[in-house]
Design brief:
The chain is globular. Strand 9, helix 14 and strand 10 form a beta-alpha-beta unit. The strands form three sheets. A six-stranded mixed β-sheet has the order 7-6-5-8-9-10. A two-stranded antiparallel sheet has the order 1-4. By secondary structure, the protein is α/β, with parallel strands linked by helices. The N terminus is likely disordered. About 45% of the residues lie in helices and about 10% in strands.
């Protein structure tokens, strides 16, 4: 367990009395002869220490050796793990529980146990858990699939509640502004731009600006104004991005003024557009893992473009290409030359930039399609800028 994670659990750094500080350091250091605190835990503290020790203690048992020394191990027993999951939800806040669950899956190889319904019912759902479940989709027994779908749906609904309203509002504004007109109706006048455009007509004696030219925008009609193609790399490292992109795809598809297509790929290409009304169906239609052929995916997307000047293609990939590199770059160049707005996201998640192919990223930047990682909160602004054909707000 990293020091940062330990501090999150034990609250180290608070200005507390000496005894309380020793107790917290004892929780961080884990006991044993080397911790130097001399502090013995009891009650709730001892139970918390046992839960931490089962994951981070490095041993092979299933309990504690004593009140002052942390031992470890969840073993391969589903009852033991289910009990431990219940314990950590009792003792720690949800954000810490999610970190510990993720560490348990990675450190102790507990993925197989997630195929059991009782295990899934015990976990705290989050984006990373959804990614793990999707990677296990093919191995999942029928008895577990309904429980897994319920877990995934809970996370998807939480994300939609958080992201949908702002995304629709931001993109509706962008669509309105993209239809600028020179003779707007009064309620469509962009007063800020109008005043700036007519500052030369300022009359000092009247302390006013005489607007010779009005600047405004027409309201976007209900017909389709823009087309968006989300092209998503479904290799294992992109799991969180696949989850967020599926949710955003469903939100975009709900807007009448945007025709949305969602394509996922590894070495094959799958068009999941007809499932966009339910992002859970989209997610279970993906196949995390496998190779990558970006060129083939872009070839498919290119074949679906009918109005290049009104189309935004969003490639979400770490750019590790297993296909034909030069062909991939030629396709991007051709789409941009035709008027397509091309956006390259190395990740769509809260985790920052992943490992990615720097050479391909530099080549895309040279074509005017810089690659960068994007958080879910920033994505609506990136899409708004692309729809309006203005510089992207890169972090």
């Amino acid at each position: 367990m990293s020091r940062t994670e330990s501090q999150a659990v034990a609250g180290v750094g608070a200005d507390t009395a000496g005894g309380e500080r020793l107790r917290r350091w004892r929780m961080v250091l884990g006991g044993g002869e080397g911790d130097g605190t001399g502090c013995v835990l009891g009650g709730r503290d001892a139970a918390m220490d046992a839960a931490l020790g089962a994951l981070y203690g490095g041993g092979t048992g299933t309990g504690r050796k004593g009140a002052g020394e942390r031992s470890a191990g969840l073993g391969g027993s589903a009852p033991n793990v289910a009990r431990w999951l219940g314990d950590i939800r009792t003792y720690f806040p949800a954000s810490v529980v999610q970190v510990m669950q993720r560490d348990a899956i990675e450190r102790l190889g507990l993925s197989a146990l997630l195929l059991e319904p009782e295990m899934l019912e015990a976990v705290e759902p989050d984006v990373h858990l959804v990614g793990t479940l999707l990677s296990l989709n093919k191995a999942m027994p029928e008895t577990t699939k309904e429980t897994a779908r319920a877990v995934v749906r809970k996370v998807v609904e939480q994300l939609e509640k958080k992201l949908a309203a702002r995304t629709r509002a931001t993109l509706t504004g962008a669509l309105d502004r993209s239809a600028r007109i020179s003779r707007p109706r009064h309620h469509d006048i962009d007063w800020d731009r109008t005043i700036r455009a007519n500052l030369k007509n300022y009359l000092p004696e009247y302390r006013t600006v005489v607007p010779e030219r009005l600047v405004g925008y027409g309201r976007a009609a209900q017909s389709v104004k823009k087309e968006v193609i989300l092209c998503i790399d479904q290799s294992g490292s992109m799991a969180a991005s696949v989850v967020y992109a599926s949710v955003f795809g469903a939100v975009l598809a709900s807007m009448r003024s945007i025709a949305t297509r969602l394509v996922v790929f590894d070495t094959a290409v799958v068009d999941l557009t007809d499932q966009l009304d339910d992002p859970v169906d989209v997610l279970f239609g993906t196949q995390l893992g496998g190779g990558t052929d970006i060129n083939r995916a872009l070839a498919y997307c290119q074949s679906k473009i009918t109005r290049p000047a009104d189309t935004v293609v969003v490639l979400i990939s770490d750019l590790y290409e297993g296909g034909i590199r030069n062909e991939m770059l030629k396709r991007v160049a051709a789409m941009k030359a035709a008027g397509v707005e091309f956006v390259t996201l190395l990740a769509l998640s809260d985790e920052g930039a992943p490992a990615y192919d720097h050479e391909h990223a530099a080549a895309l930047a040279a074509l005017g399609a810089p690659a960068f990682a994007c958080t879910p909160d920033l994505f609506p602004d990136v899409m708004a800028a692309a729809l309006e054909k203005r510089p992207l707000p890169m972090p």
